[in-house]
């Protein structure tokens, strides 16, 4: 049930921009977790490192690595997100980079709403060139 008491939708029923909205937050929490667990540093340094990885240009670069790894369903979600009419503009990216980043965020949102945190870690690990275990969030159960 949602907070309004209505039945929740399946991940496939959300608009691509709604998936990207939640996916943006999910992507950022995984990035911040990875950075914080690697070093206890001043917050401004943590912010600089995370900002470099969450900007649209970097996400677009990661898409280039991940596209061949996407399942058919993930590819469909990515294309829906990438092709959606966004009403906001990228601050420091071109339109192509911004659209590719939106597609990646849509995939992250889809996987999160589906409850597939293992797949999120797997994709981000491949895209960032890190071990998937370094992306485990504190509330996730270890296998």
CATH topology: Ribonuclease iii, N-terminal Endonuclease Domain, Chain A
Helix content: 55-70%
Number of helices in the DSSP assignment: 6
CATH architecture: Orthogonal Bundle
Q: Would you count the extended β strands for me? A: 0
* Stretches with pLDDT under 50, minimum 5 residues: none
Structural class estimated from helices and strands: mainly alpha
Mind summarizing the main beta sheet?
Answer: none
Overall geometric form: globular
Beta fraction of the residues?
under 5%
The CATH homology group name: Ribonuclease III domain
Could you spell the SSE succession in H and E letters?
HHHHHH
- Quickly count the domains: 1
- Mean pLDDT across every amino acid position: 88
What is the CATH class? Mainly Alpha
Radius of gyration: 15 Å
Query: How far apart lie the N and C ends?
Result: 28 Å
Short description:
This protein has helices spanning 16-38, 43-54, 56-66, 72-83, 95-114, 117-128. The protein is built from six helices and no strands.
List the helices and strands and how they pair.
Layout: H1 16-38, H2 43-54, H3 56-66, H4 72-83, H5 95-114, H6 117-128
Overview of this structure, please?
- By secondary structure, the chain is an all-alpha fold.
- It has a single domain (16-130), classed as Ribonuclease III domain (Ribonuclease iii, N-terminal Endonuclease Domain, Chain A), CATH 1.10.1520.10.
- 63% of the residues lie in helices and 0% in strands.
- The chain has six helices and no strands.
- The chain has helices at 16-38, 43-54, 56-66, 72-83, 95-114, 117-128.
- Helix 1 crosses helix 5 (95-114).
- The longest helix is centred in the first third of the chain and has 23 residues, at 16-38.
- It is globular and about 40 Å long.
- The two termini are 28 Å apart.
- The model has no long low-confidence stretch (mean pLDDT 88).
